[in-house]
Task: structure prediction
Amino acid sequence: LKDADKKAAYDRFGHAAFDPAMGGGPGGPRGARPGAGFGGGDFSSAFSDVFDDLFGDFMGGQRGAGGRRAARGSDLRYNLRVTLEDAYSGIQKTIHVPTAVACSACKGSGAEGGAEPTTCPTCSGMGKVRAQQGFFTVERTCPTCSGLGQIIKNPCKTCNGAGRVEKDRALNVNIPAGVETGTRIRLAGEGEAGMRGGPPGDLYIFVEVAPHDLFERDGTNLHCRVPVSMSKAALGGAIEVPTIDGGRGRVQIPAGSQSGRQMRLRGKGMPALRGGAAGDMFIELAVETPVNLTSKQKDLLREFEELSEDNNPESKSFFSTVKSFWDGMKG
Result:
């Protein structure tokens, strides 16, 4: 431990630093070159190989030459707004997507005249270069080929060697019945073209259903607020309400109905996206107070008010409670 170098090696690696089987060798670490590995191999390369095995695919490459030659195209996102009627019935929409497509002049190779690219001499086709730092190796994208593992001596004049060009594509998208805001539709292979013949990415359609003037959606159920006259609410009767399919539904209002009362039309809601029974439609009554009354109407209402003292149970109960409250405050 008096030897500073040996002590440092022992502190870092323990007995393994001096075990010949582990690569310590005669003289221990003094005879080892920077970054030398235990066991006669390259210590940093051994770690790098482990990390390659674990994370090679995640980092977008593969070990060995040519692992980065064909890069997959990027996925694309497209936000599509549809009406509630479209979401109810389903519809086919034509969308225009600005994207990168394979160059027709070089068929995606990036080389003039369809010539084959050559292996990058800097990274030997790996797409990555390694720099030694102590016991470890740091990997970075090859600056010569930008990680593709290949270089093009005569790049295509149309795409400047990229193998793809920007283009506005028209696509027909089938929107199924029952979609709602947040529904995601995947179109495999309709994303950006891959680099130099690589596979294309995917296109993801994110659906947004626009608000409706008549209906409010809650899952597969629909809610509709319907105004009714004071006399209709008091006497009862049938009313017609619109339905999302463009038809009409008939609802019987019970006599004495109040604002907020709900009635249901079964099966008149939205279809379920993945099958199953359709939702229901709920009608909420909004009893409307008449305005702009004529003198005769006002006289009739005053007469009605005088005759209807016993016909307003909620009002009678409320004011009875208020009277009891005031009497209690006086006591």
